[in-house]
Automatic annotation (TrEMBL):
PROSITE patterns: ACT, D_2_HYDROXYACID_DH_1, D_2_HYDROXYACID_DH_3. Residues 457-530 form the ACT domain. It catalyses: (2R)-3-phosphoglycerate + NAD(+) = 3-phosphooxypyruvate + NADH + H(+); (R)-2-hydroxyglutarate + NAD(+) = 2-oxoglutarate + NADH + H(+). It is an enzyme of class 1 (oxidoreductase). SUPFAM superfamilies: ACT-like (SSF55021), Formate/glycerate dehydrogenase catalytic domain-like (SSF52283), NAD(P)-binding Rossmann-fold domains (SSF51735), Serine metabolism enzymes domain (SSF143548). Its EC number is 1.1.1.95. This is D-3-phosphoglycerate dehydrogenase. GO terms for molecular function: NAD binding; phosphoglycerate dehydrogenase activity. The gene is serA. Belongs to the D-isomer specific 2-hydroxyacid dehydrogenase family. InterPro entries: ACT-like_dom_sf, ACT_dom, ASB_dom_sf, D-2-hydroxyacid_DH, D-isomer_2_OHA_DH_cat_dom, D-isomer_DH_CS, D-isomer_DH_CS1, D-isomer_DH_NAD-bd. It comes from Paenibacillus abyssi. Keywords: Amino-acid biosynthesis, NAD, Oxidoreductase, Serine biosynthesis.
Amino acid sequence: MFKVLVSDPISDMGIQQLMDAQDISVDKKPGLSEDELVAIIGQYDALLVRSQTRVTERVMEAGKQLKVVGRAGVGVDNIDLEAATQRGIIVINAPDGNTITTCEHTFAMMMAVARHIPQAYLKTVGGVWDRKSFVGVELRNKVLGVLGMGRIGSEVAKRAKAFGMEIMGYDPFLTEERAEKMGIKLSSVEDIVRNADFMTVHTPLTPETRHMIGKAQFEIMKPGMRIVNCARGGIIDEYALVEAVDQGIVAGAAFDVFEVEPPTEDHPFLKHPKIIVTPHLGASTVEAQENVAIDVSEQVLHILRNEPFRNAVNMPPIPADVLNKLQPYFSLGERLGSFIAQLTEGAVEEITVSYSGDVADVDTQPLTRHIVKGILSHHLGSEQVNLVNSMHLAKQRGLNIVTQKSNAAKGFTNLLSVTLRTKKEERLVAGTLLNGYGARIVQIDKFPVDVAPEGNLILVSHNDKPGIIGRVGTLLGSNDVNIATMQVGRKIVGGAAIMVLTVDKGVPKNVLTDFAQLPDINNAKEIILF
Ligand SMILES: NC(=O)c1ccc[n+]([C@@H]2O[C@H](COP(=O)([O-])OP(=O)(O)OC[C@H]3O[C@@H](n4cnc5c(N)ncnc54)[C@H](O)[C@@H]3O)[C@@H](O)[C@H]2O)c1
Ligand SMILES: O=C(O)[C@H](O)COP(=O)(O)O
């Protein structure tokens, strides 16, 4: 039974599918402090949050069983991603479910600031009929600058056109071609600041975007600018903004987000007549909350059940065409990694992965992750290593990972070959998928073989002499170990050779030592592949 903790208010529509699952139990405990969360997180396999819960390194460290942190929403700045990755905890988000809702809130804020809606409402309900103080401006024929043309920024730009606005957009990934297709003007931050009438930000908060609109930008800003921030507090320098409003540079501002949330009572926005605020409501609609809750719960379920999932934040996404090509090789890759790690003695220094055939045409990094996971699991324990942290752990340990690619696959459609160099030796294993036969190991060191990579294997290194097979059979038979398959490989007659046996159960250690006592046998190693 997997245990899931929900520590923020998340729509029941999504949680329901977790509650309905036979293998999941769900506890809802919104509003926990960090200490309270640390005290209980150790018993949970998954944690579901929105933006309130701070999933710090302490929380990750205490989450000994934690496999996944699911964010019902986009921003993951409340989650320590580095701490999660180090511990192999997958962080996923629900990036699509609140796009339209947040875009619509941006418009609500833009129109509210253009027409002084909150200020006029307050006066009217206070009994004052004041029509003079609240003369606004139209959106039509105004220039809107959009900083961050991702999901939300693009939707904002689309809708702004319906209002008759001209749009200037900036995003490091926005190409001239895409801007043209969207009917917007590709611009720099400075262009926007100097020329726009309205400006809205839709970037994440990163070291680069922090205070991207600050004192220097306000100094060159077109007077009368109106600014909206429904993305993240801190993208616009709050104190520099207040100054710019007071100096008459900025005509009005609408903020849904703050550098510190909730803001302190004396925050300068809260009583400012030209700044309107909402309490981080961008994603707060029934529809968006259902969307993100359903999405994140579905993915958490997949992760807990070891099924394919999407939207991992601390793992690069795999495009569908790459996944189609690589997925059949994932299990083989992991087994080859495990095989070579069990075969090789000494501290690992370098892993060389060679891809031949048409797998070499795509980005093979996702498959390398599986191979490295297989190798490290043997040394660090399979509990410690997973696809999220395998490359990270390898890097942390200073392992050099070399990838080679070639289109010639030596008679196979595709060939994966893994060489492990340790302080003591260098060994190689290669495998492929054979039509109708499945995964096969086809080479061990310099010897061609044909072995299914599964179960209990014994690798015997010997001299190619008559009688070896009989001696091996007798030794195993007398120790009640049944041989299922046997393969012998050699390069030249009478030279060095290997034998790979598949046996029906684990081999006692003393039997492996006895092998080396037999004439012409150098050593025997047991390799277990699950
Ligand atoms: N107020 C809310 O409740 C609410 C709701 C949803 C999302 N958000 C926030 O809105 C923001 C945008 O969300 P999204 O779903 O559109 O994300 P997204 O990832 O689709 O888009 C973000 C865009 O910002 C761009 N970007 C990154 N650095 C930039 C820079 N220095 N200058 C310009 N652009 C830059 C990226 O290239 C990307 O295209 C995020 O910060 C998200 O957390 C807030
Ligand atoms: O990044 C997001 O998805 C928004 O900021 C929404 O945050 P919330 O889930 O706390 O409303």
